[in-house]
Design brief:
By secondary structure, this protein is mainly alpha-helical. It has 2 domains: 55 residues; 97 residues, no CATH class. The protein is built from 8 helices and 2 strands; from the N terminus they run H-H-H-H-H-H-H-E-E-H. The protein has a two-stranded antiparallel ribbon. The longest helix has 29 residues.
């Protein structure tokens, strides 16, 4: 029991030190003061953070062979009426199972079409259109030259992102 308490104290101290160090790092990167080296390091940190966000959101690490090639999720999204399998996956169904849409990735005409009802959220081809726009958080669509969905990839963001529902639920 004594060793368990000691381990908890040590782990707590490590976490506290790490948090203090992180806060100092962020304070330093936002500061306009410091040496040229510090400023260059701060810029590099910003660049690395931006690169990390890009990888997190859009890099599927080549998993299309599994999701598209083995499981044929692209065909399930399309549905039988569009050259795939089953009834297809509409945006409404995708949102209902927890997928999310980045409202900032939607052009004004798409926003207007959804709001007016001119764009159906019950049509699997609307899901494909959202994939073309890179608007489905964590799902990367791979399309042919003709715009047909060929495969999909899954990124870290599919499980590790949230949206603020500013447009509607899940968007």
């Amino acid at each position: 029991m004594r060793h368990k308490k000691l381990a908890i104290v040590i782990i707590s101290m490590i976490v506290i030190v790490a948090l203090i160090q992180c806060s100092k790092t962020f304070e330093n990167t936002d500061s306009n003061t410091g040496t040229l080296e510090e400023k260059q390091a701060a810029e590099k940190n910003k660049s690395l953070v931006a690169q990390g966000k890009e990888i997190f959101r859009f890099d599927d690490f080549g998993d299309t062979a599994f999701w598209g090639g083995v499981l044929h999720i692209d065909k399930a999204i399309l549905g039988i009426n569009n050259g795939g399998y089953g009834s297809g996956v509409s945006p409404r169904n995708a949102l209902a199972i927890g997928l999310k849409v980045n409202a900032e990735a939607l052009p004004a005409d798409v926003v207007a079409g959804i709001q007016s009802g001119a764009i159906s959220l019950n049509d699997p081809l609307t899901t494909v259109a959202l994939l073309k726009l890179n608007a489905v958080v964590g799902i990367k669509g791979y399309l042919s030259q003709a715009g047909t969905l060929q495969s999909i990839g899954i990124t870290c963001a599919v499980c590790h992102s949230t949206v603020d529902n500013s447009f509607s639920f899940g968007i």
